[in-house]
Amino acid sequence: MRTNQHGELIYDQADLVNLLMKGHELTKLTGLLTEGINVEDMAHVLENVPAFVAYDQMCQDDLTTEAYDHRCQDIWFMPDEYKNLDIAEYVLGLCQTDAELQRVGEELLLFQERDLFNLLRYLKYLVDVMTTNNLIWGVGRGSSTASYVLYLLGVHRINSMYYELDPREFLR
């Protein structure tokens, strides 16, 4: 096994066979598969390993951080109802005043400029799962508390409008 610049494990066929022979469950592994793996020969092994990503030209070591982030977002587990959620409409619907609508509109433009709507959808999903399962998370930390959108989604509990925090502090 080797790792790429982003710390992801890259497995070849010998790595998978060795792990199997040592009694490891491949279903608990995540990483990339090298081009050298004969998928037909390994089909019985790989059919239950959804966390693996095919190692192709996009997964080379010279992958930029931005391209790496986009590739990772493409394989996030998220139910279709969240993948298809109009996150802008959802968050705007949570606003109760004109000032909130103005602030959320400005922030959504900043998120859109950075192609982060999928991240907002995932955060909505994550908060829903944590709430449903009675999991506890912090009240807020660092520059994320400057985002009113994240406050409305329940990611943190700091009302950035009340404290007049600039959302650009979060999205710089």
**Total strands:** 4
Strand order of the largest sheet: 1-2-3-4
Total tally of structural domains: 2
Rounded mean pLDDT score = 81
> What is the radius of gyration computed over CA atoms, rounded to a whole number of angstroms?
20 Å
- Alpha plus pi helix count: 8
Overall geometry: elongated
- Intertermini distance: 36 Å
Instruction: Classify the beta-strand content into a percent band.
Output: 5-15%
Give the low-pLDDT segments: 50-58
Sketch the topology as an H/E string, one letter per element.
EEHEHEHHHHHH
Largest β-sheet summary: 4 strands, mixed
Derived from helix and strand composition plus strand pairing, the structural class reads alpha/beta
Instruction: Give the helix proportion (percent range).
Output: 40-55%
Describe the 3D structure.
It is elongated and about 60 Å long. Helices cover 42% and strands 6% of the residues. The protein contains eight helices and four strands; from the N terminus they run E-E-H-E-H-E-H-H-H-H-H-H. Residues 50-58 have low confidence and may be disordered. The longest helix is centred in the middle third of the chain and has 16 residues, at 98-113. The chain folds into two domains: 2-74, no CATH class; 80-169, no CATH class. The chain is of the alpha/beta class and 172 residues long. Strands 1-2-3-4 form a four-stranded mixed β-sheet.
